[in-house]
Design a protein that fits this description.
Layout: H1 3-6, E1 13-21, E2 26-33, E3 41-44, E4 46-48, E5 54-56, E6 58-59, H2 62-81, H3 87-121, H4 143-152, E7 158-161, E8 171-174, E9 185-186, H5 189-201, H6 212-230, H7 234-245, E10 250-253, E11 256-261, E12 267-273, E13 283-284, E14 290-292, E15 298-300, E16 303-304, E17 310-311, E18 313-316, E19 333-335, E20 338-339, H8 342-349
Helix pairs in contact: 3-8
């Protein structure tokens, strides 16, 4: 197929963002396409080459890919602002773009945080010696490759391996209950994704092949005690003290909420974010506030529906928690919140000093 055969020149591109593909170990740029009366959709971004050829827009690392996206998105926003379309339609598109980009960035930040904590939990674990690994005879050729990956992540139970003649030909090895690594299984797009998810899930002693949304929900619960430990770090105490001095009482980053409770000498505590119904990935209403009428452990952030309706945030308990302890009406609080970059929480989990 040639570039001219794609017939993409008439498409209105609203935004771009990279997505990692484990099978190829590269970041592929995706583009958000205006779909008229229907919702915009993501597709792979293709670029023209010499002689009417086509290339996928791909990058070797996340930093480069995101840098390219951040450089291109402002010009795409500018192009939308100059379009001669109904103002209501234009505003709706702007909200949909922000929602789509927020969802992708929050997903990547959250999984980076989970990976950082998985690595931290096993940082002092003994690394297996390459010669001591037990493998099926068909997997012997991958012994060194396997050992190198286990040196970084000794908790892995499924590993993607394989390199021949300076070209990747991927296979998966599975750790059997008897402690022997399986014969190699050819890597497909689906099981390469499982091997990538194992870098997170196996670090929490969870299966990488289970429902990924449920697995991450479990990990969020496991992260809360760790987040509570952060309150004891001098660097975090300094950060929260600075925030309180600036009038900030709710700080949000990567699903973790630092919440200041002035009554009862409680001070700073940790809660977690929760979506309201179908609002997961919805555009966060940054000017909105959180009305807390109870002491629930979950915080639903204020968000904007695609219709433009603004929904105020609130606190609640999760399923199985029981009814959240209500506040006295005199103690209802309507609190603004601050969104912190996802890298902040990842850094805190690594106990990096607060600058």
């Amino acid at each position: 197929m040639k570039w001219s055969d794609l017939n993409r020149s008439s498409n209105e591109i609203l935004a771009v963002w990279p997505q990692y593909r484990p099978l190829f170990e590269r970041w592929f740029m995706q583009e958000l396409v205006d779909n008229g009366e229907l919702s915009p959709f993501w597709r792979d971004r293709m670029v023209p080459g010499d002689n009417d050829t086509i290339f996928s827009d791909q990058y070797p690392d996340r930093e480069t890919a995101i840098s390219v996206a951040n450089a291109l998105n402002p010009s795409l926003r500018q192009a939308l602002s100059l379009r001669s379309i109904d103002a209501t339609v234009k505003r709706s598109l702007e909200l949909k773009i922000e929602k789509a980009l927020q969802a992708k960035l929050r997903l990547q930040d959250e999984e980076s945080l989970m990976l950082a904590e998985a690595l931290r939990r096993h940082a002092h674990e003994n690394r297996p010696d390459a010669a001591a690994l037990k493998l099926e005879p068909q997997s012997e050729r991958y012994r060194q490759d396997l050992a190198e990956q286990l040196a970084d992540m000794p908790y892995l139970k499924v590993v993607k391996v394989g390199r021949s003649n300076n070209r990747w030909s991927h296979y998966l090895l599975y750790l059997r209950p008897d402690g022997i690594w399986s014969k190699p299984y050819y890597a497909t797009k689906k099981n390469a994704q499982i091997a990538e998810r194992a870098k997170i899930a196996n670090g929490f002693d969870l299966s990488a092949s289970d429902h990924w949304g449920k697995t991450k929900a479990t990990i969020r619960q496991l992260l809360l005690p760790r987040a509570n430990q952060l309150l004891q770090l001098a660097s975090v105490q300094r950060m929260l003290s600075d925030a309180l001095a600036n009038g900030e009482r709710v700080l949000v980053s990567n699903g973790i909420v630092f919440w200041y409770e002035p009554d009862g000498d409680i001070g700073w505590q940790v809660k977690e974010t929760s979506s309201a119904g179908r609002s997961e990935g919805a555009t966060i209403w940054k000017e909105g506030t959180i009305l807390s009428t109870n002491h629930g452990r979950l915080v639903v952030l204020p968000y904007v529906k695609e219709s433009g309706e603004h929904v105020r945030g609130h606190t609640k308990n999760g399923p199985g928690d029981g009814r959240a302890l209500p506040r006295h009406p005199d103690q209802y609080v309507d609190i603004p919140f601050s969104l912190y970059d996802g890298d902040l929480m990842i850094g805190l989990f690594g106990e990096l000093p607060y600058e």
